[in-house]
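tool_call: predict_structure(chain=1)
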Amino acid sequence: MTISQTQQEIILKLDKLNLTNPQLEADFLLSFVLKKPREWLLAHPEFKLTKFQILKIKNLVRQRIKGKSLALLTKKKEFYGLKFKVNKHVLVPRPETEMMVDVVLELITRNSQLTTIVDVGTGSGCIVIALAKKLKGGKFIAIDISRKALNMAKENAKFHNLHNIKFLQGNLMSPIIKELRVMSYELRVVICANLPYLTPNQLKDSPTIKFEPQDALVGGSDGLKYYRELFSQLKLLPNKNITVLCEIDHSQSEAIAKLVKKELPDFKIEIKKDLCGLERLVIIEIKK
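tool_result:
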């Protein structure tokens, strides 16, 4: 089969998924299997695939029809203009999470005070790596409870030639609580927390994410389990210069605002909307 014939066959099979651009997905899969850019495919429509390449394409298409994302099929995903490796042990980076990187960069630009950036639940490491690529100064710490997720994040940091990120295994802020408690008030801490925030029902209603790690998606019955734990840990740092950024589902904005007022009364809260106009990012800063 030629590239042109294979493209048409893939498109016909993917049509049942009601995709926005099945042609683009077909080209993406072909590029992955042939290890060629899309421009090369377009310039060589008569190129014949080997039997092995055809079998590999068919297997990928079968998995795609079952709901597996292109990112997990190809084990790579772009985030903030950077390429990241992903696997079944980490959440695939989402475009909406780029907003967190934007806001952190804005905060740092506005205040050049020496900053320690802590990425809690780092997963693939996309947030801390994007920030480390943009910021030259400061200190970077990435934490995850999963050793396999940390290994993926380390691999991504190595891919981007970054050696200034400290990787720690542990539950949320637990590996650095003692260190932060003795830190000078003059030093600023920015905590990025894209923690699991879906409810079990939301996971059930989203079949497209069933191939991603459930423990990186579900945050208890109301989706706020891990934010409660994080806020409890923050109580141990009452007099520090701290900013916390939390990604949420837009339906949780009222609930998390109440939670912050209850658990962190000395902090002020702001909720920002994403490009779709949905309340997505919670910014929490200490008042003192």
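agent: The chain has two domains: 3-66, 79-83+89-286. Proceeding to next step.
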